[in-house]
Amino acid sequence: MSAAIELTGITKRFPGVIANDNVNLTVEKGEIHAICGENGAGKSTLMKILYGLQPPDEGTMKVNGEEVRFSTPNDAIDRGIGMVHQHFMLADQLTVLENIILGAEPAGPGGVIKFKEAEAHLATVAADYGLTIDANDLIETLEVGERQRVEIIKVLYRGADILILDEPTAVLVPQEVEALFENMRDLKAAGATILFIDHKLEEVLEISDSITVLRHGKTVASMPNEGVTAHDLAELMVGSELPTPATEESTVTTEVALAVRGVTVADDDGRPAIEDVNLTIHKGEILGIAGVEGNGQAELVDALIGTASVSAGEISLLGEDITKLSVRRRREGGIGHIPEDRHHEGLLLEAPLWENAALGHQTQAPYGSRWLINRPGARQQTEAIKAEFDVRTPNIDVSAHALSGGNQQKLIVGRELTANPTLLVAAHPTRGVDVGAQAAIWEQIRDARANGLATLLISADLDELIGLSDRIVVMFRGKLVATVDPDTVTPRDLGAYMTGAASQNSDEGAAQNSDEGAAKNSGGPS
Amino acid sequence: MRSLAFNLAAPVGAFVLTLIISSLALVAFGSNPIAAFSDMLGHASELETQVEILNRATPLYLSAVAAAIGFRMNLFNIGVEGQYLFAFIVAAQVGSLVSLPSILHIPLILITSMVVGGLFSGIAGLLKVTRGVNEVISTIMLNSIAVAGLIAALQARWQPEQENFTATTLGTAPVDESGLLPDANGLVELFTPEIGQGVELTGMIFVAAIVGILYYVLLNKMRFGFDLRASGLNPFAAKAGGVPPKQMIVMAMFLSGAVAGLIGMVELAEIGRFPADPIQGLGFAGIAVALLGRNNPGAMAFSALLFAFLDVSAGILQSTQTATKEIVNIMQGIVLLAAVIAYGVTKRIQTREEAKATAEALREDSNDTVGVLS
User: Does the beta-carbon distance from B357 to A44 stay under 8 Å?
Assistant: First the structure.
């Protein structure tokens, strides 16, 4: 019997990055196959290729033994491959049935939709796969887990028997995860093949029959789920060797720059996105936050820079309580911010460079004052940033979108660092930039650290995290679960903490230990 | 030189395109395009017509600035219409109740109109930040509330008792002469002494000019204007950069409405009361003028003049029977479309040129690569 999916030598390049490098993947019929890997390991790209959203540059794909070539998702659906996206694509005001048939309505003469027929077909599909759903409920009345079930049934309704689930548990609470796993087992019993992406290792071990691990766009392991431990997986995901930290004099001082005490931030649904977070950063110190993306890092940044309000706890900068201050007051008070997505939160793409340099500092000299913009001052400062941070541009009047990503990022780093902040909140400061710009940005951050800058560094790039940080705390499901020393931590431990396979009694590690400078907490998890 | 050519390419292209399509439209209607155009131009060369065009362009320009303040922040204030009519009736009534020296009376009326327009528009801003109501919906509804509700009610209430009503005495009570902005005929007389026979250039033209200058200063020199433009270009980056989004929305809507409030003051200065049937439609026309002038204070002045010229030409085409007056509305639509197309094309070329220039600056370092993993 041929495999449900067989990918051989799949390679996909983006300018400057190889997202998938000779990836091989075999998924047998009727199995649940997990794909894990860190952010940026190439999981999503691989799924997009499989679902016909992007063509591969090289390699062959076989579905049920036949070689295929998809140019649109419709081609994939025709071959029985359906995808359930992480973010649901449902119309709230329509019923379950209406959402399921949307785009594939069975229409009779004159375009009249045959609802009865559709409902009967839906009932058959649901019964076949053991899924329960009320066809006439409005989507807006459903819980998150139920909406996900609607998405799954929608795919089955179109005749798919190979399902791709993109991080299906990311949006679910634990009980909903259990229900999803029940459904997945039923689907499997009914003959469906499931390919799912996840980086929560205990979930992967619980539900999957086989596991494939990707790292840096390559397949590093593909094995049946027998005798595999979470620690093994963590090590495979993170790599067997961690980069060695650049040995440098510690510049950590005893003066506390940022103190976060018991901070909780609620997400849109009122669930805590981060809970009871405690941390301290000293002048001259870089505190790294490790963690799989989506575990509360973005909300922590929002709480610090003031774009999200905290529901409990206190944030203080140089001993002054800033919990209630506006974003502008915090910026004036000495908080710099390198946003995780420069296009979304960092730049005015259609505005000239000098206006981009002023953004966030327009109330302060030399860019401006409370009332006026100081155009000559702002331009002069931008020229200085251009020179000092090596922003390659013909002049400072071109719009920001004309610059390459690396130069845009250098401009942002430059505008934040030249303002001499007390605290720099840097989220993925070198994401998507070339090697040269990356080295330059790291150098600039190190220099600022030597001059007493306190930095909160969030990064998915372990080279960066370990290379720059004086201390690393690990964030998992909105909590700080461990503090580790970048000099001595092992990939096995770091991976285990990041994926929730282990934890320290860690508020202690995160908060109290910090007063001693670098925590000496390098022992293995219990 | 290159950039000048760029800047001229769009308007010239739009103008040529408009001439061609308008001619085709005229032919389709069975008129002679050359005769129609020469009629319009011949008429516009007369002094009286020119004053008429300026009088029409003044409220159009104010209306365009009002709309543009919102546009720069991606706020679509469709409510200029209701804002100016409501501000007009309240300011006219307030002005009629007091008797003051001109130096106080005129500013009182102007400020009243701005405050009323601003507050009325501010309602839409408040609804947006507190309840998430889209400003397009709320301002359209506020238009109906103003025109069909408030103004109708106030007109009935403020109509003074009279023995015999005539068309010219309907409306609110007359404002004393001291409250009426004097005409600007002195300005015309600087160029030619031949004005006078019942032709008056509105004094509001000075107010409109000041508003235009303040609009320029606000956007280009003031921190508030920087915040406003940043919010329009990228609200998320603006927020992360310390711009308070809610305050900005309320302030921008207030300012937009305040400028809108001045529109009706042109008519007030001319007739001294809120009449039974005030000039309507200026709010909507202003949106078109702002679009054509691309929210630029100078360009909007030109587009206000163009629209005013076309409006005034409608009358002459009607009277000389060279073409139907509706052709003017068609031409206004065409010029707008042509401008959007021409600016779109030049913008694309400009962006490409800019990227090329930047790439050249980078050439010495050829290993610069960019990529984002998805």
Answer: no
